[in-house]
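hi! just following up on the protien thing from before. the input was this:
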Amino acid sequence: EGGNGSRPAPRLGLKKTDSAAALGRKDAPALTRRAGRRIGRQLRQVGINWDFAPVVDLNRNPSSPAIGKLERSFGPTAKKVTRHAAAFIHGLHDAGVLSCIKHFPGHGSATADSHLGVTDITATWSATELEPYARLVERELPDAVMTGHVFHAGLDPEAPATLSDAVIPELLREAIGFEGVVVSDDLQMGAIREAYTLQETVRRCLHADVDMLLFGNNLVYEPYIWRRVQTIISELVREGHVSRARIERSYERIRKLKTRLGVFAGTEP
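and the predicted 3d structure came back as:
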């Protein structure tokens, strides 16, 4: 993402970059595009062609432990966030790297960190936090969308967004019109792991129309977590809890996403 939001280790030779907040303060989309291009080129050099960025959360709570406090947001308004997120995505595409906007439906107002446990945004969230998604999807810019493990009783009184068969299908798919790949945030984060078994997590993700299930495998390490998840998915299909057509729908979205790499790879600004 830039700034504190950088997972690749410095030993790979990646240079320091500005945070989203720093770019937002400069408020020059051309500089933000250049920053995205620089990050994209560095990633390509080490063999990475997909960046889980940019963050499009609004900085509604500057003290938010997972977003505002870490300078991961471009700013407090949907207009500014949309403008800079678009520029950043164009920069990634210039370098032949795919993007992924996050954390749907909005993590910027949260007072807790979903890495650690349940994050309830019922009293702090605003519908304006959906605007960057709607505007960017309207322009067909995002290559993928990542969900947030945030709970909003008004959107779904039972489950956080990642596991919600209301939030993603109704808000993101139908209302906003996003037809591409939806990726879960790390399913080993406390907000999920502490409340659901692995089997229930996988089942709920599939019912929520999530296409790719992400396991960071660093908060909790399990060498063959992918194998367990594959087995669970196979059993869910075999036992009739998830249809084969549902799995094929995600497969087709992922296949289309891969074809976009051919569009952006090797292009120059």
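The first strand starts at residue 101 and ends at 104.
The chain has nine helices and five strands.
cheers
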